[in-house]
Amino acid sequence: MGIRIWHQSFTVLSDLGAYNDALNAHFRVIARPDTEIVLHGMAPGTYRSHYPGDDIKYATLQYLHGLQFLAAGVRAESEGFDAYAISTLPEPALRETRAALDIPVVGYGESAMLRACQLGRRFGVLVFISELAELVAENARRHGLAERFAGARYVGFRFADVLEAFDDPTRLIEIFRASARRLIQHGAEVIIAGEAPLNVLLARNGVREVDGVPIVDSLAAWVKDAEALVDLRRAGGSGACRRGYFSGRPEKARLREVLAFYGLDSLPSS
């Protein structure tokens, strides 16, 4: 039996044709033949520009945007998807969405960090937006991995630079290697290449290590986690915790009512 996964990006994918195509191509390589990954992005018009860089660096705006992730997760479950993937390093509303849904919910950063811990003692993260380093550290703590976290640093270029580099990535790859080496000097034995656009660029160009230190394919990590969690449920395994304030699941009818009250039930996705 095949698996259908709802992929939720922090970008408006309809504005980013080249990135959208690169994602689809990468997923065809890493997913099982019977796994269908359906790409979704934020509602058109969410941002002033095509990429949410200015919004992501503020906790207030990211919190508000996180409501789209929760609403999309509810829609994914109602449409019969087998798993829901928050496919962005900041992981907006991951905890809340996981508590709300019956289907498995995976996070890009969480999957990457857990995989990194299987590959080395300490991991480091390279980010497009320097302000995200603080959030990445907080997420590592929330995931129980603070002692394995070697730090997060600005990689030296932005999202727009990555889009422009798909035709000739040579310069950006050299900048990435230099930034990775600085993290390695601070104790990183595994590198997480920040957001998905950089992940795709490195993977399609065969960049899998720097000086013997592995680079985690974060997209592959969450795809395989999602597939495994669906397999486990189908085999009679347990679902997520449903006890307590953070993990207790609200009544579905009431959740839909609240989403409708705030106008989140009818947001389109790109």
From TrEMBL:
EC category name: isomerase
Keyword set, alphabetical order: Isomerase
Similarity annotation: Belongs to the HyuE racemase family.
A Pfam short name: Asp_Glu_race
Protein name, as recorded: Hydantoin racemase
The EC number(s) this enzyme carries: 5.1.99.5
One GO MF term: hydantoin racemase activity
PANTHER family reported in the protein's UniProt record: PROTEIN DCG1 (PTHR28047)
